[in-house]
Design a protein that fits this description.
The structure holds two protein chains of two kinds.
Chain A: H1 10-17, E1 22-25, E2 32-33, E3 49-52, E4 56-65, E5 75-82, E6 87-90, E7 105-112, E8 118-124
Antiparallel strand pairs in A: 1-2, 1-3, 4-5, 4-7, 5-6, 7-8
Chain B: E1 8-15, H1 26-41, E2 50-53, H2 66-74, E3 80-82, H3 90-103, E4 110-116, H4 148-163, H5 167-181, H6 195-199, E5 203-205, E6 208-209, E7 219-227, H7 228-231, E8 239-248, H8 264-275, E9 284-287, H9 293-301, H10 310-315, H11 332-335, H12 343-354, E10 368-375, E11 380-387
Parallel strand pairs in B: 2-3, 2-4, 9-10
Antiparallel strand pairs in B: 1-7, 1-8, 4-7, 5-6, 8-11, 10-11
The chains are: A mainly beta, B alpha/beta.
């Protein structure tokens, strides 16, 4: 499903097209936040700044969806805890279902869907 | 923090016996239930000045302004109304808000009605639900095609890895609720279930299988509330709303705290504090059972066991009759009735237990019931404590 890009999210999607995973950091507390917003959830008076994430993290949880909303072969969704401490939903690539495990170290990769949208996915380190 | 403790009572209730309702519009089931619940209370439609409806989601028959649509269908002009929709626990939220309205004189007789007919509903109505709307917070997740069940599966998988919970422990929850449904003549599923059957059922989103999931039924019900004072003169034994709490937080499962705690922690604490009761005072519980992992997490969030110990709690037989916390005594959403937003039906069963009218199993002499629901994927929570 194609995302509707808005002012809050435009830098994120633009970064992905250039192969960079951008997340936000609160200038007042130094803490990171996911997902992108116009304000800091750690200090609502602060305007978050965009920073490039390390791109590495670990699998916090995962599921393999065998029966989904559409007919397609089983696919996974995973919660990835980036080394910056935020957790995002994404897909894991390059790993068999039987080998999936929580705590697996992963690194971001970039999958273009079309000219406008590139999705971050994660591969085992 | 007594708040609205014992200010308002459930004085009438009705759960539609329907589980398959081909061709019947949900508003018809709601209206039949409203009239039956009013009759149960000894009240008439003309007495109603308050209405709570949240029927704008898929298969619920209405649109975003469904409280207006249903008032029109019913042919009434309520002067206090609430269309709050936070998913499955909306009707528990309505009960708390209705009690506040009754306590302050904003409303005198409030009906809360709900029905949905997902088994035959022909429309694929575009929804504002964040789970299907790839804008705002949803734009970061929908491209990966998560399903509603996958959010619960992510919670279950993590709970297993972090705390050692097993699929068999989850299965025990489904088996217990099915045992309660066996004697409920209206329950959709009454045939006994074994843990092996649950563990052998089709994998939907690992680790959750088909029999870890709630049913999809057509159905609904209604509740009538009024002041505790007026309730004393009505037909049925009043069931007092003694404690109430609600909380909303997050739309994405990825943003759950790392210990997997949900807004139920907040709604539960508030409900217990308002009621002035403790966990050992609760005779029977109705815990929203969208999936087997759901009531397990609720037990931890509400403090019936410590975090991480939900698996041991459910496999010790605590949820059955004679256990520490008999739960989902009508069979719950997993075996009796789950049209989509079960909160109202759980509230009805909580009140039925305190009236001694449980259609499945009855906790003898039950005087306190805890009813807990969630909305979305642990986005909203509401907890009600009922007493007689």
């Amino acid at each position: 499903m194609k995302p509707v890009i808005d002012n809050d999210s435009a830098p994120y999607w633009e970064g992905l097209k250039q192969g960079r995973l951008l997340i936000q950091r609160c200038p007042s507390t130094g803490r990171y936040q996911w997902y992108p917003r116009g304000h800091s959830i750690h200090d609502p008076t602060a305007i978050p700044e965009w920073v490039e994430a390390s791109g590495t993290g670990e699998v916090f949880s995962f599921t393999v969806i065998h029966r989904g909303n559409t007919k397609r072969p089983p696919y996974n969704c995973a919660m990835i805890r980036l080394d910056e401490g935020v957790i995002m939903l994404a897909s894991l690539r390059g790993i068999e279902e039987a080998d999936l495990r929580i705590g697996q170290r992963v690194r971001v990769d970039f999958e273009p869907l079309d000219d406008e949208i590139t999705l971050p996915v994660f591969r085992p380190l | 923090m007594s708040g609205i403790r014992n200010k308002a009572a459930i004085v009438g209730l009705h759960e539609s016996p329907l589980r398959d309702a081909p061709g019947i519009h949900p508003f018809r089931i709601m209206m039949d239930s409203v009239l039956a619940a009013l009759d149960d209370a000894g009240l008439a439609l003309a007495d109603v000045d308050g209405l709570c409806v949240a029927s704008g989601d898929w298969a619920e028959g209405g649109a975003v302004e469904s409280v207006t649509e249903f008032a029109d269908y019913a042919g009434i002009t309520p002067t206090w109304f609430n269309g709050t929709d936070v998913g499955g626990c909306s009707y528990l939220v309505h009960a708390g808000h209705a009690a506040a309205a009754i306590a302050t004189g904003m409303a005198e007789v409030v009906v809360i009605a709900y029905a949905a007919c997902p088994r035959w509903w022909p429309l694929t109505t575009p929804s504002f639900d964040p789970f299907v709307f790839p804008a705002g917070p949803g734009q970061y997740e929908l491209p990966y095609d998560p399903t509603l069940i996958s959010a619960y599966a992510l919670m279950a998988q993590r709970h297993m890895a972090e705390y050692g919970t097993t699929s068999r422990q989850l299965a025990e929850i489904a088996v217990t609720f099915r045992r309660h449904a066996a004697t409920n003549p209206h329950a959709k599923m009454q045939k006994p279930l074994t843990a092996e059957e649950v563990l052998g059922s089709t994998l939907i989103a690992s680790p959750l299988r088909r029999l870890d999931c709630c049913l999809v039924t057509d159905g609904g019900g209604a509740i009538v509330m009024t002041s505790a004072e007026r309730a004393r003169d009505l037909r049925r034994k009043p069931v007092l709303l003694s404690g109430f709490g609600a909380a909303v937080r997050r739309t994405q499962i990825s943003q759950i705290p790392e210990d997997l705690s949900t807004p139920a922690v907040v709604s539960g604490q508030r409900a217990f504090a308002m009621a002035g009761l403790g966990h050992k005072d609760i005779d029977v519980a109705q815990l929203y059972d969208a999936f087997t992992i759901t009531p397990l997490l609720a037990l931890e969030d509400l403090g019936f066991c410590r975090r991480g110990e939900g698996g041991a709690f459910v496999s010790d037989g605590n949820l059955g009759i004679g256990g520490a916390l008999p739960c989902n005594t009508d069979g719950g959403g997993m075996s009796s009735n789950h049209p989509g937003k079960r909160g109202l039906l759980a509230l009805i069963e909580g009140a039925r237990q305190l009236r001694g009218e449980g259609p499945g199993v009855q906790v003898e002499g039950a005087e306190t019931a805890l009813v807990h629901g969630l909305g979305g994927t642990f986005c909203a929570s509401s907890t009600a404590i009922l007493t007689v």
